[in-house]
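Renewal narrative, Specific Aim 1. Our central claim is that a sequence can be written position by position from structural information alone. The example that follows is taken directly from our test logs and has not been curated for this report. It begins with the structure tokens describing the chain, in the order in which they were read.
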């Protein structure tokens, strides 16, 4: 069990929830947890959510949840929980889509929408390191107001010469926008992906079609399949 310790709005439809858990011993960047809700009639709904907080830490555990209007779990997490509430939580889970600070390879992270959450755990973990590997995030959002962690990501880029971020918006951009304004495609990846000669450690996360398309385009650019890790979620925001 875990107790709700804090809330933070990230966008109009996305909220970060911090949980305190006395039994929590830490996690790897990129891992996730399962949350189970049980109704008064005994009906249960369970969903997996990526951990947003940096790896290697104990509680609080931060989850960043996008509210899906017709979802079973996200509306309750983002609107129904209150400080001090307890919830059934299991994890950490997963060993494939993870990153450890001792990995010396440069990092290339590609996110679509809320797929940035596990990548933010990686970046927060990296930010704690004394010797940081070079990193770049290519992040696709619908609109400017939908960019999750925007201010924190901007601070990372402004204070760390070895990290850069490229934003692209797919449904319109504000005046004076300096980022890209289309879906991630082969030309964009050819322009912004780290060179194949650097053998970057690549993490791609987002909706299923986004992830499959980006992974195929990276392979076509010459990146090795063994160096590309992917994680995807379906139309309801559930992890796959």
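The sequence written for that structure reads:
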């Amino acid at each position: 069990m875990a107790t709700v310790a804090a809330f933070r709005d990230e966008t109009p439809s996305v909220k970060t929830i911090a949980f305190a858990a006395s039994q929590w011993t830490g996690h790897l960047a990129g891992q996730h947890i399962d949350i189970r809700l049980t109704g008064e009639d005994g009906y249960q709904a369970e969903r997996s959510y990526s951990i947003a907080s940096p790896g290697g830490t104990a509680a609080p555990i931060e989850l960043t949840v996008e509210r899906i209007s017709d979802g079973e779990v996200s509306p309750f997490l983002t609107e129904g929980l209150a400080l001090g509430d307890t919830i059934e939580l299991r994890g950490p889970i997963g060993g494939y889509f993870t990153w450890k600070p001792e990995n010396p390879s440069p990092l290339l992270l590609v996110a679509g929408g809320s797929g940035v959450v596990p990548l933010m755990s990686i970046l927060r973990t990296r930010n704690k390191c004394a010797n940081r590997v070079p990193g770049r995030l290519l992040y696709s959002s619908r609109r400017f107001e939908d960019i999750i962690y925007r201010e924190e990501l901007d601070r990372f880029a402004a204070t760390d010469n070895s990290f850069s971020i490229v934003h692209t918006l797919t449904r319109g951009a504000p005046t004076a926008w300096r980022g890209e304004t289309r879906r991630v495609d082969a030309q964009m990846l050819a322009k912004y992906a780290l060179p194949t000669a650097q053998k970057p450690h690549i993490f791609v996360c987002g909706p299923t079609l986004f992830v499959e398309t980006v992974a195929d385009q990276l392979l076509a650019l010459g990146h090795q399949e063994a160096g590309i890790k992917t994680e995807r979620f379906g139309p309801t925001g559930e992890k796959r």
